[in-house]
Amino acid sequence: MSTTKHHELTLTKREAARLERAAKKNQQARKGRFSRWSQESRKNREALASRPGPRGWARPAGGAMSPSESLFEVRGTTVQVCGLYPFVAGSGLPVIGAPLGYHLRRRSLVCADPISWFLAGIISNPSAFILGQPGLGKTSLVHRFISVSAAWGYIPMILADSRPDYVLMAEALNGQVISFSPGKGHINPMDLGPLAASLWEIEDPTHREQAIGEMIGRRRSLITGLTAMMLGRALRPHESSVIAQSLVSLDPDLRKPPLMHELISFIKTRPDDLRTVMMATDDRDYDERVRDLLDALISLGPDGVYGDMFSKPTTAHIRPGVPVVFDISGVNENDAILTAAVQSLCWNLGSATVSAEQHLAVAAGRPRRTYLLVMDELWRVLRASEEMVHFIDTITRLNRGRGIAQVMVTHTMNDLKLSSAHLTATAWGFVERSSMVFLGGLAKGEMGNLREVFSLSHEEMELLSDWTAEAAVDYRTGKAGLRPGAGNFILKTGKQAGTPFHTELTSYEFLVSDTNRDWEMIK
């Protein structure tokens, strides 16, 4: 019987010490890696706790979502996806036009303005309408249109600034500011400016006759409209004929416009050509037939209620080619007749200047200028006189052919509800014919027939009503900031889904677009 011996591995003291040192070194390395990982993990957790990540707030009760698969994209017609249409936000807009701000859904840049979109063929009419409650940025949006249009060579015209909101902008653009109100400036309604007299320089006799005939008709319509406002009724046929014949007799070629007292004196002298027009049998019959007309003209003359506003030579004529603002803030807003008369006069003079300048450009073979006409505080004009409703209606229908884009601004659709159904339908037509509509914050009761015209979805109506909320008060300062909906608009073009965006102003624009500057004295 034999026995087997088991031999064990025996390490020397040197080898055992080396292995022990290596084990300690590995253990320290593992502790170091764990410590660095712990520090980085703690920093990441702190960063995620201060801001939301791509899946939400990564903190207790933060509501972070679990991983999910990415959605795939499909296409379909409005019939196939009818349950999803109309959408609350439209598709991406072309980068054409004035940069207005960022898209409220996708944060992409939104660019648009009536001139650029019309020239690009996106819209069929260079017109825009802006609706929104006071203090939500309507005027600031118009300032952006004005500043960019002026930089691109278009001519802004604000022909009735009643607050005023655009004087500082015009001065910043080296434009022209014409102040017109009682005691501040004069305008002769029969003087259409030096450009009208320059039409005689057109060499082509047919073109010259056409241009001068247009100016004569404009002047006749202007005086007839002003007289009708003073009378509170439309002129009778013989009264219109008296005005037309008197203007032709006093100034047949637009070179020496008469003053108001000269027109009144001429009618009082009973000239033969006026007797023939009225078919008056004697002086008594003549005086009786012109009595009402003379009463209206006298009220506009130097002896009338408005003094010499309309009775002296024009203080300043419109300079073509530069931005222009008619500052009428000094007109008493409670005098509806004067307000209507001043606004009608300013708009007529501006329109006549544009038309005369374009006639001269065509005759000289040079490109015509493009104008941007701004009609802010539209409700003041519409409430002043029925004549102004029809006057604006004519402007909105003919501006495209005259090279004039227009931007109309008012507060709500209720501003367009006038004294009769006929006038209301005419005023609502301003919105219907506008190719672009910018909707700011509106209460549901202020939208009127807007949903019928532009097919507003339920989401869009809710969004507009949310923007009317008042600003929250900071308990530390006791002051409120901007209203939540300030600067927010939905751009609608026809029946398409709207594009919600927020207007971004530069620091310089804030200085010239502040409509609360009159409150700066109150600290």
**Which fold does the CATH topology of the domain at 79-152 and 370-523 refer to?**
Rossmann fold
Largest sheet features:
11 strands, mixed
Give the integer mean of the pLDDT values: 81
Strand proportion: 5-15%
Structural class: alpha/beta
Secondary structure tally, helices: 17
Rg, alpha carbons: 35 Å
What's the total count of β strands? 11
The H-level CATH homologous superfamily of the domain at 79-152 and 370-523, spelled out, is P-loop containing nucleotide triphosphate hydrolases
Strand order of the largest sheet: 2-1-11-10-9-3-8-7-4-6-5
Taking the alpha carbons of the first and last residues, their distance comes to 117 Å
So, CATH architecture of the domain at 79-152 and 370-523?
3-Layer(aba) Sandwich
CATH class of the domain at 79-152 and 370-523: Alpha Beta
Q: Low-confidence segments, ≥5 residues, pLDDT <50? A: 1-6
Tell me, briefly, the overall form: elongated
